[in-house]
Amino acid sequence: MFRLVLVFLFSFSSFAKDQATLTDKLKKRSTESNQKMSENIKDKFKQALQELRGSGLIQKAIKQGAKIPDFLVNGKKISTFYSKKPVVLKFYRGSWCPYCQLELKEYEKYKQKIEDKGYQVLVLTPDTFKEIIRFKRKQSISFQIYQDVGNLIAKKMGIAFQVNNDIVKIYKEFGIHLEENQGNANNELPLPGTYIINQKGEITFAYLNPDYTQRLDPLDLLKLL
């Protein structure tokens, strides 16, 4: 009887975990992370977030209603993608980011539903090509992920920013080395944004949030497609 109860509890726990949304998983990760951080480190992250919010980056970034600027994705014009079928364009910070990992793994679950609605998904990151391959293999991601060398595309979109020195130092203490992941010493990152682009190259929806622990849930994206 006791063994039966344990099996039931384990099965229920697994079911509940599978039913959790991306928003649920991000919130859980953020709570767990904050519990492990010292007050000093938490203050540094809060300060960096306040600086980013006050920088005017979001206000200046390209948003809904604008035309997507011209840029190359893997040597091809972005127009060659959206002219064939509308695009869901995503930016992520890097393979080292646990929130990016959760986000893309969750989007992978809904990849077929997104494609069934007639959309293709393009994902951009400042990571090196080698790191992208490693990340896709480790996380079982089938999306097309392309390198945004030096965050040049993110800069065109107005969503690239300089990581302040305190955060760079904290990252290194955590074993995160942006220069190794990106192949440069710029210490820049993109906001983890999500865009919907129609076949005319118009941005019909844009999600931008300076808080990297917040992402557009794929369930909410599907409602917009």
Q: Could you walk me through the main structural features you see in this protein, from its secondary elements to its overall organization?
A:
This protein is an alpha/beta fold. It has one domain: Glutaredoxin (3-Layer(aba) Sandwich). The chain has twelve helices and nine strands. The chain has helices spanning 2-19, 22-36, 39-53, 57-60, 78-82, 98-109, 111-116, 129-139, 152-157, 165-173, 178-182, 218-224; strands at residues 72-73, 76-77, 87-91, 120-125, 144-147, 160-162, 188-190, 194-197, 203-207. A five-stranded mixed sheet has the order 5-4-3-8-9. Strands 1-2 form a two-stranded antiparallel sheet. The longest helix has 18 residues, at 2-19. It is globular and about 50 Å long. 28% of the residues are buried. Residues 4-16 have low confidence and may be disordered.
Give keywords.
225 residues, alpha/beta, Glutaredoxin, 9 strands
Summarize the SSE layout with pairings.
Layout: H1 2-19, H2 22-36, H3 39-53, H4 57-60, E1 72-73, E2 76-77, H5 78-82, E3 87-91, H6 98-109, H7 111-116, E4 120-125, H8 129-139, E5 144-147, H9 152-157, E6 160-162, H10 165-173, H11 178-182, E7 188-190, E8 194-197, E9 203-207, H12 218-224
Parallel strand pairs: 3-4, 4-5
Antiparallel strand pairs: 1-2, 3-8, 6-7, 8-9
Helix pairs in contact: 2-6
In short:
The protein is an alpha/beta fold and 225 residues long.
Sketch the topology as an H/E string, one letter per element.
HHHHEEHEHHEHEHEHHEEEH
Radius of gyration: 19 Å
If strands are numbered along the chain, what order do they take across the biggest sheet?
Answer: 5-4-3-8-9
* CATH architecture descriptor name: 3-Layer(aba) Sandwich
Tertiary shape: globular
CATH topology: Glutaredoxin
Roughly what fraction of the amino acids lie in strands? Answer: 15-25%
Question: Would you identify the CATH H-level superfamily?
Answer: Glutaredoxin
- Structure summary, number of beta strands: 9
Residue runs with pLDDT of under 50 for 5 or more positions: 4-16
Q: Structural class of the secondary elements?
A: alpha/beta
Number of domains: 1
The CATH class is: Alpha Beta
* Residue-averaged pLDDT: 93
Terminal residue distance: 48 Å
How many strands, which pairing sense, and closed or not: the largest β-sheet? 5 strands, mixed
Residues in helix, %: 40-55%
Number of helices: 12
